[in-house]
């Protein structure tokens, strides 16, 4: 039976041969100099044993800044549970919503809540901290093992007239079982990892991996002065000793570079605003980005002046997080949006609009835009299509579309994009026009914009169609991604995302663009290009060897993981130490987050590359102890158990995951494959079908299910599954190949010609499809 399945797989799968990289391309990359890469501060000046002294030490010399900060959201980012910080109603209030219940009350000076615990039974818990200030405030419970967990109920701090002054469920009406990793007592609501770095100053997570407990410490609750400026102990000493001008850093270990003095030319009725200087690496925007971005942490030695990619790994513009045009979709904060904007690329910084200490706008509402944009030109019906009167849309409502997060927190997109209702029609993305005109269609809005500004749409973000078509499996999307990936005018985040998405479109052109991206000025693009080499033969991965010594830590650790299995003697002598250092940096990045299953799994993958299966197994087991519902990790672990001859253990482990999360597509799929290998095909078919149903967005699951069906002699059912899969995922090559093979067997030349034409467009480098198409057309 297993042999039949393997034969069916071979019949249906055409393997596109990898094209060899030419030697000259490798040499070109190997000899490139660091001067070709945008400058980054790899080493930040260390002024000695810096120490944190707290924000109160700043008030004597910086009274106005301290006063502004004291009223900011940063100052109230977190606090101990006490009357001055707790805004919720704890006067013995019982609340119920979506079948969930909680009672908030006080026991003397102690704030308490009665709520469902990890065992599913109601119990009393002591609230230890507040989190945030407005428009909502959340609350934390400290557990004996040092975990601080975020309660699911939050207090709406808005006025009653605006719908506030009430308890509400942050996650909405969705039922979340105690076994779910999103339950308030579990992994995804753990403050120590999810919130702590950006709600405290000088955080030390203090996770003990052996004991699985935390000893988290900080120098100051809330985002204090030193959270942005770095430890100030030596600065205070410098000030008290006479403030010598001989120390340009004024006692700080590092500062964010200001660059040359900027000279702004505000817009007039005829001209656009302009700035005379570029943006220095590690500027103040990067200071804000450390917390105002969706990212992972790769190092704990952040200092002002370091680019974000020295200590953090920003996410790409992934489909689940962003719209096709880069608008924020999930909770991604502001940095990714801002770095897609023309304003950012023209030199605008966060503090041009926001006071850095109070956080408030430097002028009320849209008036802040008039610092650079002349109202005489833009605050007119000719520009906006709306008469200038009370209630009319302004710069913010048209160019900063808003979404509401956590039920009540309305946030504006900071990419400053022009309204594009025409893209709503072609790609399905939202547009700001319909935010006000919800009773009108996107077509109506697009026609209105065209009447005002003509048929040609302008704008800085030009990649909505590329991502939409590529994600829909359209060959035209591949061509658009190829252009976007090497477009120097496109935001670096868009280029990096394009490189990542080209992995679904292998071919000579993709290889050439990936090779070129290894020399991109931006480290996020270089790191993305390195990741696309994973899984290739050793000689092809060698092209990334020079990046082991890249100025950016993000790039170095990507190269270290890629080449971790490489015999060091294959590298030039000058790069041999760099390999060990890059691998060590990758390991250190994972060890920052050993409280997370994904970090354990990442380290397990490294162990496997290096031939250390026992250590990998230990990490996989630890990962599943941290999250028994981690289906993808369970599937990886099952493969390791299979390779070491323990198929029965793989099955038992997968079933234990499914006992907690029966709808895990990854675990169901892995179980199905395990049952196939054990020649239990009827059982396997059930698991493979459930995997495909659980995750219809994964075309691989449906394809493998169809292979198994055909092996079981159910060819008609297999064909139906394949046709449905191709309709849902028109760019899935394996599915199209399987249907082509079947059409040829059945002498259905019309259907075969359609499929061959599609495959020729999807894989233009594979001449077999072109030959089949040509023969059929004859």
Structure, explained:
The structure is a single chain. The relative contact order is 0.08. Among the domains are: 76-223, no CATH class; 260-383 and 402-415, no CATH class; 593-627, no CATH class. Helix 1 packs across helix 31 (699-711), helix 25 (597-609) runs antiparallel to helix 26 (613-626) and helix 31 packs antiparallel against helix 32. Strands 1, 2, 3, 4, 5, 6, 7, 8 and 9 form a 9-stranded antiparallel sheet that branches. The protein starts with a helix and ends with a helix. Strand 11 (207-208) and strand 12 form a beta hairpin. With 778 residues, it is an alpha+beta fold. The protein has 35 helices and 19 strands.
Task: Give me some keywords for this one.
nine-stranded antiparallel sheet, alpha+beta, 778 residues, disordered N terminus, 35 helices, two-stranded antiparallel sheet, 41% helix
Strand percentage lies at 5-15%
Q: Distance N terminus to C terminus? A: 39 Å
**Rg calc:** 28 Å
Number of DSSP helices? 35
Largest sheet descriptor: 9 strands, antiparallel
| Poorly predicted sequence stretches spanning 5 or more consecutive residues | 1-48
Beta strand count: 19
Q: Classify the helix fraction into a percent range.
A: 40-55%
Large-scale geometry: globular
Mean pLDDT: 91
Organism: Bosea massiliensis
Protein name: Tetratricopeptide repeat protein
Domain Cytochrome c-552/4: 57-86, 189-230
TPR repeats: 597-630
